[in-house]
Design a protein that fits this description.
By secondary structure, this protein is α+β, with helices and mostly antiparallel strands. The chain has 9 helices and 11 strands. The chain has one domain (6-12, 44-214, 235-301): Aminopeptidase. Keywords: Nucleus, Protein transport, Transport.
Length: 302
């Protein structure tokens, strides 16, 4: 198998991390006039690589389990990871991000699977069934995922796997998507000419109370929304839902449809529970709109 090449080095990906060193004990008296600490800069270079199944598989399985969250035992991620990587090689599309050379584990990746071409693939069919079971009977996503309806549909859909560590710098992400779409566009293979994309991910919901979550909502909007209460009753927070990856906001803004679903095996929450509740997400977007979303995403990162 040919050695994967570095696709591109992105200047925005070279980041600096500040570390604060504790001041020596003898210097404590000087801390009033000085910070008493030195700041050292650590440059981290991120490189883009083609998929390498021999190296990337373990990290891809770990990232798949992370996205599946509570449902990680419902899907065998080993064959699914193999399929994502092999599809990247077959279509010559998709890339990973690494910081320590080709043989290191990827911090993130964006890959794609042709839905129509892999409905019955043993590695993909269980995952496809898992997604279908989260959909209502009438949904734009069902038209593309359900084999009983899709043959009559003119679209050629693909499922995008955007998997990454949560602390991966945001300026890297538009380049991952841009590289993927450019590779698909430049590939003469008709298998690469997708009309629509379904992006799978997860989100979270904040629920609870000001007191329970240790928050103090004193802004004018929250004051206006407060209802008169007696005694020591606690004002509930306004529930909010968010994607785990901030770049997905740009995609959601142009998406045809956004579907969220509860994880099947998530533990039941008590009525008085507070904190973060996770859920799954499926976002349907056309090829043209995804191009525009990536442009907006990249402009915001500059």
């Amino acid at each position: 198998m040919p050695t994967p090449r570095t696709l591109e080095a992105v200047s925005a990906a070279s980041i600096s991390t500040s570390k604060r060193k504790n001041a020596p004990k003898d210097d404590e008296d000087d801390s009033a006039s000085d910070s008493g600490s030195d700041v050292s800069m650590i440059n981290v270079d991120f490189d883009f690589y083609n998929f390498n199944p021999d190296v990337d598989q373990i990290a891809v399985k770990r990232l798949l389990r992370q996205t599946l969250s509570h449902d990680d035992e419902l899907i065998d991620v080993h064959p699914l990871a193999e399929l994502i990587l092999s599809e990247g090689i077959r279509l010559s599309a998709g890339s990973s991000i690494k910081t320590d050379g080709e043989e290191s584990d990827p911090w993130g990746l964006v890959g794609v699977i042709d839905i129509n071409g892999h409905r019955n693939h043993p590695a993909f069919a269980p995952f496809l069934e898992y997604l279908l079971n989260t959909l209502p009977k009438i949904s734009p996503l069902r038209l593309l995922l359900d084999p009983s309806t899709s043959p009559a549909h003119a679209s050629k859909p693909a499922l995008i796997f955007s998997l990454r560590m949560l602390n991966l710098p945001l300026p890297l992400i538009p380049h991952l998507y841009r590289i993927l779409l450019n590779e698909l566009k430049e590939n003469p293979n008709s298998d690469c000419k997708f009309t629509d994309y379904i992006i799978w991910g997860r989100g979270y919901r904040l629920e609870g109370s000001e007191e329970g979550m240790g928050l103090d909502l004193n802004d004018s909007n929250s004051k206006k929304s407060k209802k008169k209460s007696s005694g020591n009753s606690v004002l509930p927070l306004t529930s909010g839902t968010f994607a785990y990856h901030p770049e997905e906001e740009f995609i959601d803004n142009l998406a045809t449809h956004v579907h969220t679903y509860p994880f099947k095996t998530a533990p039941k929450r008590d009525e008085d529970a507070f904190g973060v509740e996770q859920f799954g997400r499926l976002v349907l977007i056309s090829n043209d709109k995804l191009v525009k979303a990536i442009e907006s995403m990249q402009a915001a990162c500059q």
